[in-house]
Amino acid sequence: MRKHYDFSKAKRGPVIKPTTEKTRITIRIDSDILDWFRASAHEQGGASYQTLINRALRTFMESSAEPLEATLRRVLREELKERRAS
To answer: What is the mean pLDDT of the chain?
Structure first.
């Protein structure tokens, strides 16, 4: 490796602008969770761990679409039905 490189004639490559659908944020995630996502991404052939986290959050968001009141009513109906059957 050289001690000095000459970049005087270098040109910057194209800058890819981020899509407007994504927002850059800073969050704190437990190290073991981040390690798991990174390992999963590596096992999938070098996928982006950030994409995996985004997919997991989206899956949770979409599965949690039922309002809390509706969830409580459904659970109570199921429990009452089981108790009546006993």
So the answer is: 87
